[in-house]
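Dear colleagues,

As part of the handover before I leave the project, I'm documenting each prediction I ran so the next person doesn't have to rerun anything. This entry is a single chain, and its sequence is reproduced below.
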Amino acid sequence: MRWLLRILILAGVLQAILGVGVALADTVIQIEITATGNASASCPTVLTATPSSDYLINLTWVNATGNDTLGTVIRVDYGAYPASPTAGDLVYSGNGTSTTHSVNMGVLTEDIYYRAWTIYAGPTYSVCYTSATVEVPGVAPTGGVIFDTQGLTDMADLMRVGLILGFPILFGLIGVLRASLTGYVVGVVGLCLATTYIWDGVGTMLGIPMLLVIFGLLMSAMRNALSEGLRIF
């Protein structure tokens, strides 16, 4: 049991170190994004772009909620996302949830990038947005390297799990090595709180092993309490 705990603890600590970098990056990105626009506004969601022919693209989305919203604005650019709610070309502005965009994909040399923001009085726009991309047939990838953003997102989620698990696992290790009541309590409580997040974000792949680790810590605490006694710290 102890070798299993040590392996899980080492994995958690390593992921925690990586998770700190992800958390700091998220903070920097958030600070950069909220520098302009309506930071308290909610954003539209689930923007989809589906070509129905070589000349027509169907767009659908879900508007932001709130009585002060004036609708959604959608902009388009080619080769990269529109940098702001006033960049690129206007595709739609209003309270609807669908529209079409006429474009001749046969003459395009870059992919099509859509982005949607919520409109508020002023006008001001939401800081957050939703995006969609249409890949134009025959367009070669630029830069020679394609980054799988979904893969990066999944990696970031795993790093966050490591960050959440690192400290309670570390305290659990302190409890095991030092027979410390504080280490056991903090480790068990922290892991119990983290397990809820893990179950929702990752599923049983890590949820059930975490329950086993928590059970093992409780059994170890009982054993030490009966055989050796527990220190407070």
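Helices lie at 2-33, 149-178, 181-201, 204-227. The chain has a mean pLDDT of 73.

All the best with the project,
I.
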